[in-house]
Task: inverse folding
C-alpha cells in the first residue's frame, strides 16, 4: 500500500474513532463507528487480508452497527444534557485518561519493533484456500467451540428478551 | 515519506485501542460504552493482522476470524442485557445504575 493511501486510511480511522467518543448523540456515535470500521477495512486491504476486510465490513458494518442503531431507536433515549459530575469522579476520569495518554505516548516514543521487510510475493493471508485448510485442520476444535458458543449466545438472547409472567420476585 | 511498516500499523492500533479505552472510561451512556468496547476489539484485530502479515504466517488472520465471530455473539448478548436493563430500570445511564452503592 502506498504511503499516501495508508496515511489517508489511518487518519480517517482515528478521526472517526474520536468521533465515536465525543459525539453526544448515540446515533451519530454509531455512524462514526461505521466509518471507522470502513477505515480499518481499508487498512486490512493494505495488509493484503482481503477476506478479512470483506468480513469486517459484512459482520461489523452490516450486522453489528445495524443492531446498535436498532437498539438506539428502540430505547429512544433523550439527549445527553445531564448534570455535571461531582468533583471526585471527574478527577478520577481525568487521571485515568492521562494515564492512558501517557501509555500511548510512551509506546509511540519507545516501542519500536524490528520490522521485517514485507516479502515480495503476495501474502499468504490473501489466499482463500489457506483459510479453509487452517480452519478445518489446525483450528478444527476452536471452530466447533465457536459453533457451540453461537448456539449458547442465541439461547441466552432468547431467554434474556423473553418476558416471564408472574415471576416478579426474580430480579 | 516512507512506506508503512509494522510499527506504523501498530501505532494506529494502539491509538484506536486508547481511544476506545478512553471512551469506556469517560462516557456514561451504556450503548456508547459498548461501541467503544467494539472499537477496542477492532484495534486488537488490526494488530493481529499486521503481525501476521509482517511475519509471513497465517495464524493471526485465522484468529481474527474467531474474534469477529465472538464479537458478533458478544454484541447480541450485550444488547439483550441492555434492553432487559432498560425495561427494568428505565435508564441506561451508568451513573444512575448504583444499586450496589447504597
Result:
Amino acid at each position: 500500500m502506498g504511503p499516501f493511501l495508508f496515511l489517508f486510511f489511518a487518519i480517517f480511522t482515528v478521526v472517526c474513532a474520536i468521533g465515536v467518543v465525543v459525539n453526544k448523540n448515540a446515533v451519530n456515535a454509531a455512524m462514526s463507528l461505521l466509518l471507522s470500521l470502513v477505515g480499518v477495512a481499508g487498512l486490512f486491504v493494505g495488509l493484503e487480508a482481503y477476506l478479512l476486510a470483506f468480513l469486517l465490513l459484512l459482520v461489523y458494518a452490516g450486522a453489528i452497527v445495524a443492531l446498535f442503531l436498532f437498539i438506539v431507536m428502540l430505547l429512544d433515549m433523550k439527549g445527553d444534557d445531564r448534570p455535571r459530575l461531582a468533583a471526585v469522579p471527574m478527577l478520577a476520569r481525568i487521571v485515568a485518561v492521562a494515564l492512558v495518554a501517557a501509555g500511548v505516548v510512551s509506546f509511540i516514543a519507545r516501542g519500536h519493533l524490528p520490522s521485517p521487510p514485507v516479502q515480495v510475493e503476495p501474502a499468504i493471508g490473501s489466499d482463500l484456500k489457506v483459510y479453509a485448510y487452517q480452519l478445518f485442520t489446525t483450528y478444527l476444535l476452536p471452530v466447533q467451540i465457536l459453533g457451540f458458543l453461537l448456539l449458547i449466545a442465541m439461547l441466552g438472547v432468547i431467554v434474556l428478551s423473553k418476558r416471564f409472567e408472574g415471576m416478579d420476585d426474580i430480579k | 515519506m516512507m512506506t508503512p511498516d509494522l510499527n506504523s500499523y501498530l501505532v494506529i492500533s494502539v491509538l484506536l485501542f486508547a481511544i476506545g479505552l478512553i471512551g469506556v472510561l469517560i462516557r456514561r451512556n451504556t450503548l456508547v460504552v459498548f461501541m467503544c468496547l467494539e472499537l477496542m476489539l477492532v484495534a486488537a484485530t488490526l494488530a493481529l493482522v499486521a503481525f501476521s502479515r509482517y511475519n509471513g504466517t497465517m495464524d493471526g488472520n485465522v484468529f481474527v476470524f474467531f474474534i469477529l465471530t465472538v464479537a458478533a455473539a458478544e454484541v447480541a448478548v450485550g444488547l439483550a442485557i441492555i434492553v432487559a436493563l432498560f425495561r427494568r430500570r428505565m435508564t441506561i445511564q451508568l451513573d444512575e445504575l448504583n444499586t450496589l452503592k447504597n
